[in-house]
Design brief:
Elements: H1 2-33, H2 42-52, H3 54-74, H4 79-100, H5 108-156, H6 159-175, H7 179-198, E1 204-205, H8 206-223, E2 230-235, E3 244-245, H9 251-261, E4 268-277, E5 280-288, H10 302-314, E6 318-324, E7 328-336
Parallel strand pairs: 2-4
Antiparallel strand pairs: 1-3, 4-5, 5-7, 6-7
C-alpha cells in the first residue's frame, strides 16, 4: 500500500511539474509583451500565477484524479471500461471546476466541453505514458540482458575445460565408489550448465528453475556439519505446473539465508517454503540472524540486482516483502507465472 501511494504521489507531482512548466513557458511571452506587468519582478509574476490563481488548485486536483485513474484502472480494466473510467474523471474534474469557480460555469455547453477535454486528456495521457514506459522498459531489459550475457562470458573463461574436468572427477568418484561425491559433482555440473544457458534467456521452465534450487540446497546441506544447533526445513512442491519463470530469481534469497543465518557455534535455522498459489509462485524464506555466520564469499549485490531484474521482467506482477526484527530475517516473494 505504501509503495502504491508513493508511486501515485511521485507520478502526480511529476505530472503537475511538467504541466506547470508548459504553462509558464506561455506566461513568459505574456510577461514580456503585457504592459500591465512592467516593473514587476519575474518571480512576483510567476508566484501570482501559481498561488493566487485558483486554476492552479483546480489543475492540481484534476491531475490527482488522472494519476489515480492511471495507477488503478489503466492496466486492470479492458479498453472499454478504462474509457468509462476516463469519462468519470472528466465529469468529476468538471464538477471540481464548478465547486471552486461557481460563477464561471453557468453555461452547460462550457461544462460539457470541459468534461470532454478532461476525458480525452486523461485517455491520451495514460496511453502515451504507457507507451513511453514500455519503450524505456524494453531498452532497459535489453541493456540488462546484454550486461548479464557479458558477465556470463567473463565468468565462463573456458567452460568446456571446466565441464570436462567435472566429468573426469565424476567418473573417478564412481570408480572409487564415492557415490555422495559423484552426486555432488553431477549436481554442480548441472548447475553450471543451467547458469550459462539460463543467463541468455529472460524466462525458463519452472521445473528447471526449481531443479537448480534443489541442487543448490543439496550441495549446501552436504557442506554443513551435522550438528543439532543447525535446523534447516525445506518444503518444495512435488508436482509443478507447465509455467515459466525468470532464471536464477530465487537463488539470491536462499544464498542470503545461508550467508547470514548459519553458524556452527550458535542455535540457528533456515525455513524455506516454495509453493504454487493459483497462477503465482510463493517463496517464503526465513532465517535466524547469527553473530558469527559461516563465511561465504560474495559481492553483496545479489539481492539488489535481483530486485532490479524483478522490476524489469515483472513490473507490477510481483510482490516482495522483507522484514528484520534483529533476530529473524524473513522475505516473502510472490511472482506471477507465465507473465
Amino acid at each position: 500500500m505504501k509503495v502504491k501511494l508513493k508511486s501515485i504521489i511521485t507520478g502526480w507531482l511529476a505530472h503537475f511539474a511538467g504541466v506547470m512548466l508548459v504553462i509558464n513557458l506561455s506566461h513568459i511571452y505574456e510577461y514580456i509583451t503585457d504592459t500591465l506587468y512592467k516593473g514587476r519582478a519575474p518571480w512576483e509574476f510567476f508566484v501570482y500565477h501559481l498561488f493566487q490563481d485558483s486554476d492552479t488548485l483546480i489543475l492540481l486536483i484534476c491531475l490527482l484524479y488522472i494519476e489515480i485513474n492511471y495507477q488503478y484502472f489503466f492496466k486492470k480494466l479492458n479498453l472499454f471500461l478504462f474509457t468509462v473510467s476516463c469519462v468519470v474523471v472528466g465529469i468529476v474534474g468538471s464538477a471540481t471546476f464548478i465547486i471552486l469557480q461557481p460563477n464561471t460555469h453557468e453555461n452547460i455547453l462550457l461544462y460539457l466541453s470541459q468534461t470532454v477535454i478532461i476525458t480525452i486528456y486523461t485517455w491520451l495521457y495514460s496511453i502515451i505514458r504507457n507507451y513511453l514506459y514500455q519503450t524505456i522498459y524494453e531498452k532497459s531489459l535489453k541493456l540488462q540482458q546484454s550486461k548479464n550475457e557479458l558477465d556470463a562470458l567473463k565468468a565462463q573463461l573456458n567452460p568446456h575445460f571446466l565441464f570436462n574436468s567435472l566429468n573426469y572427477l565424476y567418473g573417478t568418484a564412481l570408480k572409487e565408489k564415492a557415490a555422495v561425491t559423484a552426486d555432488g559433482i553431477d549436481r554442480l555440473s548441472g548447475m553450471m550448465r543451467y547458469t550459462i544457458a539460463g543467463i541468455q534467456e529472460n524466462f525458463v521452465s519452472l521445473q528447471e528453475e526449481l531443479k537448480f534450487v534443489d541442487d543448490y540446497l543439496t550441495l549446501q546441506q552436504a557442506r554443513l556439519p551435522a550438528t543439532d544447533n543447525i535446523r534447516i526445513n525445506i518444503q518444495m512442491p512435488s508436482a509443478l505446473p507447465d509455467a515459466l519463470i525468470a532464471p536464477m530469481i530465487i537463488l539470491p534469497f536462499i544464498e542470503n539465508a545461508f550467508k547470514y543465518g548459519i553458524s556452527t557455534d550458535e542455535q540457528c535455522f533456515i525455513n524455506i517454503l516454495i509453493e504454487e498459489e493459483g497462477n503465482k509462485l510463493l517463496i517464503d524464506i526465513s532465517n535466524s540472524i547469527v553473530q558469527e555466520p559461516i563465511k561465504i564469499k560474495g559481492n553483496n549485490t545479489g539481492i539488489k540486482n535481483t530486485i532490479k531484474r524483478l522490476n524489469l521482467l515483472y513490473g507490477h506482477n510481483y510482490n516482495l516483502r522483507q522484514t528484520n526484527d534483529g533476530n529473524t530475517y524473513r522475505m516473502t516473494l510472490q511472482i506471477a507465472l507465465n507473465p
